[in-house]
Amino acid sequence: MKYASLEAARIACAPKTSIKDWLRIAGISPAIVGAWAYVSAGGPFRPVASRAYAYERLIFEAILARLLTEGAQGTSTTAVAQPVPDEASDSKR
Known about the structure:
By secondary structure, the chain is mainly alpha-helical.
């Protein structure tokens, strides 16, 4: 988690963004990097190791993308669900 926050700070302060950083900011890097990690680690020829490595990369990229989108849009946990008023109780008043 600490490395993800350091990487998010680096991306946020970078004067230019690379394609890799742009994909992270856009939020599509977890799927792309997860698939790439699976293939580069051996894919179907080394299924256990490649799947484990792909999961690690996918989880890291998802955490990083979440940190970047929260930093750009504010925290996503600030939204609170409001109860929907019941029409039946409103008509009785």
